[in-house]
Amino acid sequence: MPPIEDISPAPDQDPEGVTVDRFGQKRTASGALILEQGEVERGLSEDTRATLDAGGFFDPTAFDDAEVVKTKAYVHLMPGLPNEVVYVGLGLILLLSFVLFERYGKRKDPRGTGGGGSRDDRPYWRFELTRFAWLKRALNSRWVQPAVQLPVVIAFVAVIVCGLVGSQEPGRNIAPVLTWNIWWIGLIFLVMFAGNLWCFMCPWTAIPDWVMRRSLLAVRKIKSFGLKYPRFRLWMWPAIVLFGFVTWLEIAYDAANRPWLTSIFGIFMVLLSWLCLVLFERKAMCRYVCFVGRVSGQYATMGMLELRRRDNAVCRSCETSDCVHGREGVGYACPTSEYMGAMNDNQYCTLCTECVKSCPHDNIALNLRSSGADLLHPHRAKIDEAYMAILVFIVSAFHGAAMIPLWKEWETGLRGWLVDHDLLGTKELFAGSDGGVLTFTLMMLGCIFAPALIYWLLCAAMHLASGRRDVSIRKLFIRFAYTLLPIALFYHLAHNATHVFWEWSKLRRLVSDPLGWGTDWFGTARAPLTSLWEPETIWYLQVALVVIGHAYGIFVAQREAFRVFDGDKKASFRVHLVMIVGMIAMSVLSLWLLAQPMYMRTADL
């Protein structure tokens, strides 16, 4: 299995095999850095090196300019999909699009129901896990969630400490690797199989919750202002704005290579959760503000784990609705105000199981189910959820684009053009990274708003193709935004697979030297960086994920078209055709991004 060091950047046409990476650093054919002037080549003096070796939050390089941090981060390239694999993926996408559309034309009514009724009119495959007595007892117990949260909280605090007191040199601190390579990447895989299970164990809400209740187990009310969240004005817009801001901060300031910034991000999320708990009733943070919860909530509609009512009739006859209001001394009110008698999707369910404890009729079950059940059947549709779904797709693609060598070329070209033409004022405006942050911000805004505009134009085309003036572009914009989630999720999985299988061995190194102080606790601090799987296996897995996401998207769009046009076969047929063309373009973009060589998320020394 080849070590990662053997994967080189694009050659610089040098006969000796010397290459130049994105920061202008010379490397050997194996990817090793060539230090022509010793440590000075890295911009590190002997005094600075000594400070880095000692570690500490007050490391003078902790607040280095973004470009300096990136220059110090010796990030290797990971290979993209070879052309022949891309062609296979393209062929499968086109073939599947044709076959599924042909089958669609022969279906009379593929909707989950005849007219937008309850999803229970069309049952989907599910297997009740709470039929196992031991699991049912565990979910009814008050100690299970704290028992899961406690080790997560301990690990979270350890990451915060490592990020603040450990070495601030890129690649020598375990905090960024655990955060960006393990947690953030693993979260997407977790959501696919277990829905919002992260919310069940989340340390950001656990810490203030335990402190304000003064207990891990007792059912006690929190003393807060108890304000009602202004949902009809804000909805989840705070989460949308926070998602965009954190994405900008992560890439523009290279948070994956700044341990202290990673720690500050974690502390900020705890304080934000605490503030929401003090100001508002229940957990407004979980439903409206936490961008991680809202992203995982969107993806959880494709998840394979759910909490649902067993019998609709029992919910209709219930007079207390304890599942949403809670039961004194037994269970809390639902933190996100979800009523089990009407909940038909996973988006806001945090799997906290308080409804299981509170329900006096034992009518709530934990189920394993078929993937995508929420999207294939009738579900709620709101404008803020639609914007979040669009942003999730855009940001997942944007992350991939910002990690390829071409992005650096585009960024450098735009920065030079702006300075040459003096379009943004004097050159002093480009202080810091010679305008790098400002240029990146402009490019990111373009990458967000341009695809959103293209999607709106796609909806306008669907509106024209339908021939139905009673169905507005706005309605199509909202309803079909959910059909982007399968493509976004499976591209996100394919993109993350690159990092998981290529970068896993960084953790093996850092567990022996988590603070970057030169320790070697387990004898792995100098272990080689190797890929977990062979490159060919990773490539075909990525193509398979993109193709599966494309097929899922077609099925979801098929159902949505019939629901939106209430069974009008001609209108839904034409709208679905337009949407398939758009989905082909999205899947082709996914393959193109995966075909580009990609820089590792975190540094390697």
Automatic annotation (TrEMBL):
Gene Ontology MF terms in the entry: iron-sulfur cluster binding; metal ion binding
Gene Ontology, cellular component aspect: plasma membrane
Chain segments annotated as transmembrane: 85-101, 147-167, 182-211, 232-253, 259-280, 386-407, 437-464, 476-494, 538-557, 577-595
Coiled-coil residue windows: none
Chief location of this protein within or outside the cell: membrane
Subcellular location: Cell membrane
Alphabetical UniProt keywords: Cell membrane, Iron, Iron-sulfur, Membrane, Metal-binding, Transmembrane, Transmembrane helix
Domain of life: Bacteria
Protein name: 4Fe-4S ferredoxin-type domain-containing protein
Native source species: Enhygromyxa salina
